[in-house]
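Hi V.,

Quick status before I head out on leave. The structure for the redesign project is tokenized and pasted below; the design run finished overnight.
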């Protein structure tokens, strides 16, 4: 993938995140007792609200690794079936309210940052997470595996609905593997 394509993806993501808004929607709170060491690794996107920077992608994932400066590196990746190729963007995340709070700012095009708010989390197994941006237009359901059992998924959707997100507009991400492998 060309550097120009990655920059275009990152620029679109930043514009969509309301010009470096790192807030949290009113009435929504992030998880406490967060363990960044357990969050590290790959998360698969199970569902999301629509955004141009992910439109048409399947097999979407985000992989987090620890940075020496205390933040996290993040690689977002998805398969564009129409073009028959992977799209990828690399960024950095930093904690806003301390490492024990599930609230970060993420940048794919520094110095601009967007909000990454973990609003529900499987604290026992770190198997699923519910994440939002700075307002109710941004929502993701993530899992360690390529799917979630119906009860867990229904519970996360219900929680998002209770918090005022438009869950009827959720897009369920195909996680069936791309024809070109991982």
């Amino acid at each position: 993938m060309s550097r120009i394509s990655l920059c275009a993806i990152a620029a679109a993501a930043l514009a969509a995140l309301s010009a470096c808004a790192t807030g949290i929607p009113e009435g929504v709170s992030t998880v406490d007792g967060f363990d960044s060491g357990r969050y590290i690794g790959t998360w698969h996107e199970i569902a999301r609200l629509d955004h141009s920077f992910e439109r048409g992608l399947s097999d979407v994932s985000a992989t987090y690794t620890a940075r020496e400066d205390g933040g996290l590196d993040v690689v977002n990746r998805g398969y564009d079936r129409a073009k028959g190729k992977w799209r990828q963007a690399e960024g950095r995340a930093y904690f806003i309210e301390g490492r024990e709070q599930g609230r970060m700012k993420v940048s794919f095009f520094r110095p601009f940052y967007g909000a990454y708010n973990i609003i529900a989390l499987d604290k026992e197994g770190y198997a699923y997470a519910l994440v939002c941006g700075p307002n109710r237009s941004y929502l993701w359901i993530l899992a360690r595996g390529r799917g979630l059992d119906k009860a867990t998924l229904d519970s996360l959707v219900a929680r998002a609905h209770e918090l005022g997100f438009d869950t009827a507009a959720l897009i369920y991400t195909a996680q069936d593997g791309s024809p070109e492998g991982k």
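Above is the designed sequence. Strands lie at 41-48, 57-66, 72-80, 85-95, 103-109, 112-121, 128-132, 139-143, 171-172.

G. will cover questions while I'm gone.

Best,
W.
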